[in-house]
Amino acid sequence: MMNINELTNYLPHRYPFLLVDRVVEMEPDSSIVGLKNVTVNEEFFLGHFPGNPIMPGVLIVEAMAQTAAILAIKSGDMDIPNIYFMSIEKAKFRRPVIPGDQLRFEVQVLKKRGNVYKFTGRALVGDAVAAEAEFSAMMAAKE
Question: Are the CB atoms for 42 and 60 separated by under 8 Å?
């Protein structure tokens, strides 16, 4: 549905902080599914952890938020706004994510009020939940 070249038209993030490779499903105002192929070449594996590379949980949540940002932008009525992370709640980490894994981000809108969205998301490797969280973000017009 959206490849990396299309994603960069909407997200301001770039390497090494762009954490979504592809969007495979999207229903505006409702849900989105994104993918990240985790490779040993990711910079964060240099220090997390040498000899036992594990993707930091905070980056998994950030990747879910980037996926949610695409959904908010495609659902909104602003011309590619800035999106600001506002909160993270109920974050749980269930299994380590290692090089070679493919993360599947399943994100749904819980509620939208004006320019503020609340989402719930899960990051899966295969059928196993690696992380889950609720989080909110605000869309703001670019200056």
Answer: no
Q: Nearest Cα to 139, choosing from 8, 10, 6? A: 10
108-130 per-position pLDDT tens digit: 999 999 999 999 999 999 999 99
Round to whole Å and give the CA distance between 72 and 77: 9
Please give the positions annotated as active site. Answer: 48
Contact 100, 110 (CB under 8 A): no
Give the CA distances from residue 15 to residues 18, 21, 42, 99, 113, in Å, rounded to whole numbers and listed in that order: 5, 11, 9, 17, 32
Mind listing the pLDDT tens digit for each residue in 81-111? 899 999 999 999 999 999 999 999 999 999 9
